[in-house]
Amino acid sequence: MVYVGLAEMRVKLVAGNWKMNGNLASSQALIKAILPPLSALNRARYAVCAPFPYLAAVGQALRGSSVALGAQDLSQFEDGAYTGGVSGAMLADCGCTHVIVGHSERRNVFGEGDAIVAQKYAQAVKHGLIPILCVGETLSERESGVTEAVVARQIDAVIQRCGIAALGRGVVAYEPVWAIGTGRTASPQQAQAVHAFIRGRVVAADRRLAETLLILYGGSVKAGNAAELFAMADVDGGLIGGASLVADEFVAICSAAQGAKETVKT
Ligand code: PGA
Question: Is the CB of residue 243 less than 8 Å from the CB of residue 219?
């Protein structure tokens, strides 16, 4: 099922996830390269999620622009004796407006389960940050037919802990684990099917919220496939890893988001 009632209210968002790449100089060079072309685009929103040590410098470079600053993770705790932790309050203090929560690399490499992800989501909302909640199945989960069950479990964990209204304060990113960094993108139809499932699941709790909720797709999005993904009715933009490190690629993907809004409307 496709929910298009309030689809036109959904302004697309493209967020770059730089992951643990680059250095201070390359981060600044990347911002310098993408800002002029992105400033000319005004029908979608953009964000870059930089590594913690570069947030302040990247935020400085973005100042006055329409590109938002995001982090890639935050602590599930408020403050105190949590060596190495970075709190939601600290991120807000550094000028972040967005933060990725529950990326599959955090879940699978760092062992963060649904409960921790939900705690992090709560911290993000508490500190006025827009959490980008990542959900998605592994290849073996897809092959064994439990994609919807996995995604439902990941979303429900957040709804149960934080409440449905809190889900409306964030953005969901569907990122099939098998498509991340592999060059193997979900087809537009595969992405649309899961996005529609996610929206349908949220409809059951709050229809209006579901219709305005942004659901991004992530996993090997490139300049060459962005437009067809973003043209799908329930795909409201993208979370971009590798391609966000290449200025021309990222700008082309952002341009595709701007064009795709028209496609959805017609
Ligand atoms: P990718 O990563 O675009 O390199 O596949 C996406 C992500 O992990 O957010």
Answer: no
Mean pLDDT of 79-92: 98
Q: What is the pLDDT of residues 99-154, one digit of tens each?
A: 999 999 999 999 999 999 999 999 999 999 999 999 999 999 999 999 999 999 99
Q: Between helices 55-62 and 24-39, what is the axis angle to 10°?
A: 30
What pTM was computed for the model?
Answer: 0.95
141 is catalytic: no
Cβ of 16 less than 6 Å from ligand 1:
no
Substitution candidate for ligand 1 out of 14, 240, 245, 246 with most atoms within 8 A of CB: 240
* 180 CB near ligand 1 (under 6 Å): yes
Structure tokens at 210: 């579901």
**H-only helix segments in the chain:** 24-39, 55-62, 88-93, 104-109, 114-126, 139-143, 147-162, 164-167, 188-203, 207-212, 223-230, 247-265
Residue whose pair of structure tokens reads 């992530």 in the numeric block: 218
- The yes-or-no answer on residue 262 being catalytic is no
Whether domain 9-73+85-264 has CATH 3.20.20.70: the reply is: yes
> Does the CB atom of residue 239 touch ligand 1 within 6 A?
yes
